[in-house]
Design a protein that fits this description.
By secondary structure, this protein is α/β, with parallel strands linked by helices. About 20% of the residues lie in helices and about 25% in strands. It has one domain (about 15-185): Vaccinia Virus protein VP39 (Rossmann fold, 3-Layer(aba) Sandwich). It starts with 16 loop residues before the first strand and ends in a 5-residue tail after the last strand.
């Protein structure tokens, strides 16, 4: 340090793991090989109850805790995601999966694909934030959130989460990468 003789600066740095890989795209996110491997690692290692409010097909959550608005999907429940999540008490799950439609266009395509009329509220930013708020509430301290999308926001620091890993999956050409964030809930952890 300038002007201070004999002073030592010690800085502890904890690095976040960031990986980038390539894989073929798939409308079923959890079937993309590197994403499947990442989910296998974390869901298996953490164990316990995991919830998936946008389960689609191939969810890693137990069937008892799967939800998808589309009644044709192999989920136990078929409700609006944020309404479904409100049914659970605080700090109930070891982990939560968040793999919604990634854009208003995908919301429209997914929902109209099974005959549901898309509303203005389905395409607003609050569509995602309401679900994230509920998911953050029901994950236990020290639990995990694994979020998929076209950004690395995850549930975020403001909801009590700290990112521990990011996986960027490139799909070639001008296709958007699929970005997967793994976060640990630190709020309330001693």
């Amino acid at each position: 340090m300038k002007g201070v003789e004999g002073a030592h600066t010690i800085m502890a740095v904890k690095l976040m793991k960031i990986n980038r890989t390539w894989a073929m795209p798939n409308k079923w996110t959890f079937k993309i090989k590197p994403i499947n491997e990442l989910l296998s690692k974390y869901v298996k290692d953490e164990g316990g109850r995991w919830i998936d409010p946008f389960a689609g097909k191939y969810s890693f959550a137990e069937y008892a805790y799967t939800n998808d608005l589309n009644p044709e999907m192999p989920s136990k429940y078929h409700q609006e995601a944020y309404i479904y999540l409100q049914e659970y008490p605080d700090d109930f799950f070891e982990g939560g999966l968040f793999d919604p439609p990634y854009s208003p266009r995908q919301v429209k395509e997914c929902y109209e694909g099974f005959g549901r009329k898309v509303t203005f509220s389905d395409t607003k930013c609050t569509f995602y934030s309401k679900v994230k708020d509920e998911l953050a509430r029901i994950i236990k301290p020290d639990g995990l959130a694994i979020c998929c999308g076209w950004n690395s926001m995850g549930l975020g620091k403001g909801r009590g989460f700290k990112q521990i890993e990011i996986l960027l999956v490139a799909h070639g050409g001008n296709k958007n990468d699929t970005i997967v964030t793994v976060e640990r809930k630190t709020e309330g952890v001693k």
